[in-house]
Amino acid sequence: MADLSCKIAGIDSLNPFWLASAPPTDKKYNVVRAFEAGWGGVVWKTLGIDPPVINVSSRYGAHHDQNRRLLGINNIELISDRPLAVNLQEIRECRAEYPDHVIIGSMMAPIEERAWKDLAQQIAESGVHGIELNLGCPHGMCERGMGSAIGQVPEMVEQVTRWVKESVDIPVFTKLTPNITNILWSAEAAYKGGADAVSLINTVNSIISVDIDQMVPEPMVDGKGTHGGYCGSAVKPIALNMVAEIARSPETKNLHISGIGGITTWKDAVEFMALGSNAVQVCTAAMIYGFRVVDDLIDGMSQWMDDKGYTSVEQFTRAAVPQVADWNELNMNFDTKAVINPDNCIECGRCHIACEDTSHQAITMTAKPEGGRLFEVVDEECVGCNLCYHICPVPDCITMEPVKTDKPPMTWPEHPLNPMRMAAE
Amino acid sequence: MTTLQAKQVSKSGAIHGGAGHNAADDGFSDLHPAYSTLQAMAESNRCLYCYDAPCVTACPTSIDIPTFIRKISTGNPDGAAKTILSANIMGGTCARACPTEVLCEQACVRNVAEDTAVEIGSLQRFAVDHLMARDLPHPFKRAPETGKSIAVVGAGPAGLSCAHRAAMLGHNVTVFEAKAKPGGLNEYGLAAYKMTNDFAQREVEFLLGIGGIRIEYGKALGKDISIDALKDSYDAVFVGVGLGSTNNLGLKGEEFPGVDDAISFIEKLRQTEPKSDMPVGNNVIVIGGGNTAIDAAVQAKRLGADEVTLVYRRGAENMSATEFEQDLAKTNGVVVRYWAKPVAIKANGKLLGMEFEKTELDASGKLVGTGETFEVRADQILKAIGQKIKTDDLAGMEIAGGKIVVDENYQTTAPGVFAGGDCIKSGEDLTVQSVEDGKQAAIAIDAFLKSA
After folding, report:
1. What is the pTM of this model?
2. From A66, A344, A372, residue closest to B74, measured CB to CB
């Protein structure tokens, strides 16, 4: 079994799997269950200045597939609605009872120096390993000038990070909102403010669905709905890109990253780490299936590491970052073509109709003399788009095979047909 | 007089085997219970939404199966039902009675790698039942009245399908039915566990919702009506009379009480309420290898017969009953004996049993008796050795190979007279084929009337 221990922002963790600041980490009861289940750490649900907020009833909306599997949840719950002293006492108890597990205190306050510093100090005194700044909540709190209202303004991100760094001597994680135009602006601000790490992404601002009988967005609160924070496996691609952008940018590449966003399986976690995360945080998968999902996260990653010969997570952390490029750096002379293995084909015809209707008319369908249908790729028409490969219901039936070429690699800036290049000559 | 008695059918199901799905099965409840919404959701999501799907090709009525299943999966079951019914107005019966395992479900691509087809029949039933359970206007509109009138002989699947499509195309239809109820074999010829809750009658009522169709009951061809008279009074005639007569064994004592046609046995059972009042023997022999033989054998067992022996003159692989149906017989405790033919009916004042001779194929592949015989005791013998056409009343139409001859437009050799269903040679003698025949004949009649 591979060693899954890791270090992020100077904090040692038993494994890279933490529960994100959210309803599952609202109180000691849940956190104890999480630690017992095997989670390496938790980010406690965001603490604010008393009096505690009051939450509404009806809090989550859902994006299901047609088989009622949850692809994503959105929520309109606010930060912890329990008194600060109660939360801090429970944090102390958890730290004492589970000394090997990581607890990070998440916090949020109005944009006032004293408020951030006082709250950060109180939380630090409870014994947490670090503090996470919630600058991302896209619903409710932002209407009070907190959460994403701060996170969307890089100057405020820098200012708040600096205030907290000045007030405590434990690592500070600045949690970023994806509801911005360029993640690097907020990441750079956090870095300049002295953050030890960034956590991303917070939830994506969203209306998840509409009740078309009542004509109200969901979740419904007495006949009205509001936008909320979207999470779950559906947001993973958005998060992966933002993580990779920070990891490969010269200005932010030294920041540690706590990757968040739809991580459901061990493979998701490996992808986040390969693209730059030093550890990951999970919420929705646990909300859907319970804390026990950590078992496969640990076991799956460990098995995969053994298979690949990795003995520590550092060996693959950021391993894919060098291969993340701008489009302009891609080789225009690379060519790949779909190959259909007729032995695996179940003759559903999906590749044919997808290519015929929406792509390049590169898959023919002909009647076989012995009955049934034969699907074949027309190499001259196939542009290697991968659509058939992705929609085929049978694993390994369609493969993408690179075409051998004598042409040297050529990027678009070097391409003879690039008008910008021609203009320069 | 027959000595057959109605059995006390135990609610606990003690008298029959384990094929019933629910514990309180009384022997007549649904063979395949209706899907719940959850089951429909899960199963509809197994469909791959194939393009130019093999299941559609395998359906005699060419129902657009991937489209209707997708509609179920998106929460549009009534739209799914319309997709089904637009191709097959008796989609509800076909969902229950079709041997899907040799039609659509056999062609399902899910068989290739997983060996488990999407349960198309159950999904079809879910959709059609959903629509029929709602108090909605009939889903199809009639074209403007053409002023033409069509006589349909027989209110079975072929006749009713023809009537519905003809009415939809704007014609006025009068259906003449010899029996007291419509539905044909849907009402009289399928095992009770396939057509629960009076479904055949509910389906006809639904079908008639299109308007423009009148049914006259108790009008038998050759007795109350004739093809010639109908030709004179109507612009076109459709004959969907099915196969009105049955084959005989040609043995002495065949008229003996207790010796009956399996199809008559099923008919009586279907019209008996409560079903447990239906008399059945203690030891029942069923002769034949088709679905009717299985229906009769399973139904006899479920009615409380101690022993039911199904005897077929060839092997299991030669039976026209599907593998599923054969298994159903076995799981219901029916004893199946292959390679034997009846040679004598044994009676001594009352029916005692039957003597069989073992059979085999000779060197030339011909079925021959081996000379070795055995006896099976019985107080009831049900013959399911095929039906044949009643030719007496079909004067003017060419008959060949026991079927009415039709051209590619379903027109018989009598001009203006069309035919479909079991009385013609189209495909298998199945409800679904009859529905297709009726539909296509109506389209052909429409073209015929327009060109006239």
Report:
1. 0.91
2. A66
Tell if the CB–CB gap between A350 and B48 is shorter than 8 Å: yes
The per-residue pLDDT for range A390-416, each reduced to its tens digit, is 999 999 999 999 999 999 999 999 999
DSSP state at residue B407:
-
Q: Minimal Cα distance from B45: which residue of A? A: A67
Domains and their CATH numbers in chain A? 6-323 (3.20.20.70), 327-424 (3.30.70.20)
Whether A358 has its CB under 8 Å from any CB of chain B: the answer is no
- Report CB contact under 8 Å: B112, A346: yes
Task: State percent of chain B over pLDDT 70.
Answer: 95
Contacts across the A-B interface (CB distance below 8 Å) = 42
Q: Which two tokens stand for residue B407?
A: 């051209």
Q: Name which of B42, B44, B109 is nearest A348 (Cβ-Cβ).
A: B109
Window from A185-199, A276-290, B5-19 with minimum mean pLDDT: B5-19
CA separation, residue A197 to residues A40, A282, B152, B204 (Å): 17, 17, 82, 72
Among chain B residues, the shortest Cα distance to A365 is held by: B52
The segment(s) of chain B belonging to CATH 3.50.50.60 are 149-244+389-451, 246-387
Which of A68, A349, A372 has the CB atom closest to B50's CB atom? A349
Task: Say yes or no for a CB contact (<8 Å) between A66 and B41.
Answer: yes
Taking CB atoms and an 8 Å limit, are B45 and A67 in contact across chains? Answer: yes
Sequence-distant contacts of B318-325: CB under 8 A, at least 24 apart: B318/B289, B319/B289, B319/B290, B320/B289, B320/B290, B320/B291, B321/B289, B321/B290, B321/B291, B321/B293, B321/B294, B322/B99, B322/B101, B322/B102, B322/B291, B323/B101, B324/B99, B324/B101, B325/B99, B325/B291, B325/B294
Instruction: Tell if the CB–CB gap between B54 and A347 is shorter than 8 Å.
Output: yes
pLDDT of residue A391: 97
CA distance A76 to chain B (A): 27
Which of B319, B341, B340 lies closest to B330, judged by CA?
B319
- Look up tokens 């098995």; give the residue: A303
Residues carrying CATH 1.10.1060.10, chain B: 31-132
Q: Of 1.20.1250.20, 1.10.1060.10, 1.10.4160.10, 3.90.850.10, which CATH number belongs to B31-132?
A: 1.10.1060.10
In this prediction the ipTM stands at 0.89
Catalytically annotated residues of A = 137
8 Å CB contact of A347 and B49: no
What top-level class would CATH report for the domain B149-244+389-451?
A: alpha beta
Distance separating alpha carbons of residues A120 and A105, to the nearest angstrom: 9
Tell me if chain B has a CB within 8 Å of the CB of A394: yes
As assigned by CATH, the class of the B246-387 domain is alpha beta
Say if CB A272 and CB A280 are below 8 A apart.
yes
Cis ω for the linkage preceding A219 (within 30 of 0):
yes
- Quick check: B16 pLDDT over 70? no
pLDDT of residue A425: 60
Given A66, A350, A365, which is nearest B73 (Cβ)?
A: A66
